[in-house]
Each structure stands twice: as C-alpha cells, then as structure tokens.
Amino acid sequence: MVEKMDAMKAILLKMKEETLQEINKTLKSGSDITGGEPSGDIYDQASSERDRELGLLLGDREREKLRNIDEALLKIDEGEYGICEECEEDIPIGRLKVVPFAHYCVKCKADIEKQQAQTKRFEEDRVYREIALGEEEEI
Question: Which of 8, 30, 51, 133 has the most CB atoms less than 10 A away?
C-alpha cells in the first residue's frame, strides 16, 4: 500500500509541475496579448479579446486543477487519500490512476452528477415558467 501511495504522490507532483508550467505559459501569452495599444481593425481586436478571455478561462481551470492536486497531496500526508468523500469506501486504484485527485468513487460521482443535472433542469424549468407567466401578464 505504501508503494501505491508513493507512486500516486509522484504522479501528483508531476501533474502539479506540468500544471504550473501551463499556468505560466497562459500568463505569459495573456500579457503578450494585452500589452500595447489596440491595433488592427475591429475584427482583429475582437479576435484578440476572445483569445484573452479563453486564456483566462483555461487559466482558471488550471488553477482549479492545481488546488485539487494540492488537496490530494495533503490527503496522502494525512493518510486519507483514496477514500470517497461520500460513501467513505476506498476509491479503486484504476480510477485514481485516471483522476489522481478524485474526491469520489465512480458510483458516488455518477449519483452526484445525476442529482446536479436534475437540479439544473428544475431551475431552468422554473425560470422558463416565470418568463412565460411574465409574458402572459403583458398581453
């Protein structure tokens, strides 16, 4: 078991290093895009703005990934790594190899995603009903 934890820690540390490199690359390309006076026509400016926003979005994802990696490394140190936060069962090593910072086993993750999808659908239905009621009042 100790060997598996050491192997997972090595994988997580490598992922952390790669993620930090991606964040630095995104920051550098973002500063290149935003520096200087706007140039080109409106289409070039719109394209540059879209690229900048995409870079920021990817940067946010990378930062979230980094946070998850750090949490997983902390769990390894505390002896709590590889335990599902929902059912408290061991997360299979195959899942951890694919998603080393997984918080849940496959079954619990699927249940959570199903519940989130139902909640989102319910909220969207509620909003559409409110819009429809508002339009009826205007008529």
Answer: 8
Each residue's pLDDT expressed in tens, for the chain with a length of 139 residues: 678 788 999 999 999 999 888 878 767 765 554 444 455 688 778 877 877 777 777 677 888 898 999 999 999 999 999 999 999 999 999 999 999 999 999 999 999 999 999 999 988 888 888 887 776 665 5
On whether the CB atoms of residues 101 and 80 are closer than 8 A, the answer is: no
Identify whether the C-beta of residue 15 lies closer than 8 Å to the C-beta of residue 69.
yes
- Name the DSSP letter for residue 111: H
> Which domains occur in the chain, in start order?
2-104 (1.20.120.910)
